[in-house]
Amino acid sequence: MNERSRCKWCNLKNPIYIKYHDEEWGVPNFDEQYLFEMLILESFQAGLSWECVLNKREAFRKAFDGFDAEKIAIYDDNKIAELQSNKDIIRNKLKIRSAVNNAKIFLGIQKEYGSFCGYLKGFTGEQQIIEVDKTTSPLSDALSADLIKRGMKFVGSTIIYSYLQAIGVISSHREECFMYKGRKFK
Questions:
Q1: By three-state DSSP, how is residue 20 classified?
Q2: Cβ atoms within 10 A of the Cβ of 111, count?
Q3: Cβ atoms within 10 Å, residue 94
Q4: Which of 10, 23, 32, 169 is deepest in the core (most CB within 10 A)?
Q5: Degrees (nearest 5) of the Cα angle 104, 106, 109?
Q6: CA 111, CA 130: separation in Å to the nearest integer?
Q7: Is 42 noted as a catalytic residue in this protein?
Q8: Catalytic one of 17, 37, 42, 161
Q9: How far apart are CA 95 and CA 64, in angstroms?
Q10: Active site (annotated) includes residue 20
Q11: Is residue 135 helix, strand or coil?
């Protein structure tokens, strides 16, 4: 598996990271469940490494009811306390509370636009952007500003840029990486 040329950030000693790089990062995926999962995971990354979050992904899935937005949106103080005591996830109280808040807003956006993907398409024009060495862009700035205006937390432009990379709106694989395809958004 390690004989392929990959992006330099990919830790070749971590099979979870390799699999993420090879199968997910920069690959368009607009399944509503996936869009929500990645939004929540990216918000937990704030101030931490993505590898740290990724290593805890399965524990997050279990703790957060498979990233079911409808279930998360109704978490009460008891569930929040349970999450804060779960040593297998990132236990930041503000991030946990923001996941509940963001689930409610995500559901509202789905209702307003028919899907979260439909909402995103209004920003992306259904095009995949291919660029490297950036942490923000006019697209991430605009999407972040709108999500913040709607009341979401932990969705600054850098987090949203990473989110857009994760879901494949932005492909930042370098030309020397086997995943570089220069493909268009589908």
A1: helix
A2: 9
A3: 11
A4: 169
A5: 110
A6: 30
A7: yes
A8: 42
A9: 13
A10: yes
A11: coil
Burial label for 23, CB within 10 Å (0-12, 13-18, 19+), is: exposed
- Read off the pLDDT of residues 134-163 as tens digits, 9 standing for 90 and up: 999 999 999 999 999 999 999 999 999 999
Query: Using an 8 Å Cβ cutoff, are 89 and 59 in contact?
Result: yes
CA distance 27 to 120: 16
The predicted-structure confidence for 43-70, as pLDDT tens digits, reads as follows 999 999 999 999 999 999 999 999 999 9
Per-residue 3-state assignment (H helix, E strand, C coil) for 54-90: HHCHHHHHHHCHHHCHHHHCCCCHHHHHHHHCCCCCC
**Residue 5: both structure tokens together:** 């040329």
Catalytic residue among 25, 50, 119, 163: 50
Average pLDDT taken over every residue of the chain: 94
Which tokens sit at 24? 């997910």
Query: Which residue shows structure tokens 């030309």?
Result: 175
The token pair at 164 is: 């857009």
Instruction: Write down the pLDDT at residue 182.
Output: 52
Asked if residue 167 lies in contact with residue 29, where contact means CB atoms within 8 angstroms, the answer is yes
Q: Are strands 170-171 and 129-130 parallel, antiparallel or unpaired?
A: parallel
Active-site option among 20, 34, 113, 180: 20
- Say which residue the tokens 């923000």 belong to: 136
What is the percentage of the chain residues whose pLDDT exceeds 90?
88
Q: Where would I find the beta strands (DSSP E) of the chain?
A: 129-130, 170-171
